[in-house]
Amino acid sequence: MNLERIPDLSSAPNLEKINLRWCSNLRELPSSPQHLKKLTLLNVDYCKNLRSLPSFYKATSPTNLDLGGCSNLCSFPEIMGTMESLRHLVLSGTALKELPSSIGNLIGLEHLNMNNCKNLVCLPDSFCKLKSLERFYLKGCSRLEIFPEIMDTMEWLYELDLSGTTLKELPSSIGNLIGLQNLALQNCENLVCLPDSFYKLKSLEGFYLKGCSRLEIFPEIRHHGEFEVS
């Protein structure tokens, strides 16, 4: 499609879904999302010329926000106040270098996909505030060297994929992911060690390390059940 911009939508307060996927010429979104109080779906994936987003406010209520494949999207806006409604956020294949610290305001977020964000270099410490998060995908984020400290327990996160990152180690606070069931670290070629706190991951069932060619130290496992290492 040749659509480059969409008009101001403040006069359409009952709008529930916006699907603009593959609008490759779209450069911007309207600056009035706070008026769309009934919006549940915003899909702009593969809008490859989209470079920025308007700020998100508490009054905005999408449950699904899909920005996958927006390869020129360099920044994610500040989240102005807590947002409980957003459940699924897809940022895979974007040009993001970081997330704002206010990402912790997405207190209802369950699924965060950042696969193949090749420019991503860090994650904010506020990551641990995402108490509802269940699945977090960072596969192929080849410039991500550091995973943030997890300053509080996260009991609902059960799947974490860090495959193909450049992590050298995991934080000792990884043990605060008390509900983690699957941890993927495949092809993390810079990974050299795992923290002793690894044994605190009592719920772990699958642990994937194939291709971690520099891993020299594996911690003692004091595990009450069984899990798969591959």
TrEMBL record:
Domain of life, per lineage: Eukaryota
Protein name: Disease resistance protein RPS4B/Roq1-like leucine-rich repeats domain-containing protein
Domain named Disease resistance protein RPS4B/Roq1-like leucine-rich repeats: residues: 130-215
Gene3D superfamilies: Ribonuclease Inhibitor
Any single Pfam family the record assigns to this protein: LRR_1
InterPro entries attached to this UniProt entry: Leu-rich_rpt (IPR001611), LRR_dom_sf (IPR032675), RPS4B/Roq1-like_LRR (IPR058546)
Classification lineage: Eukaryota, Viridiplantae, Streptophyta, Embryophyta, Tracheophyta
SUPFAM superfamilies in the record: L domain-like (SSF52058)
Keywords from the UniProt entry: Plant defense
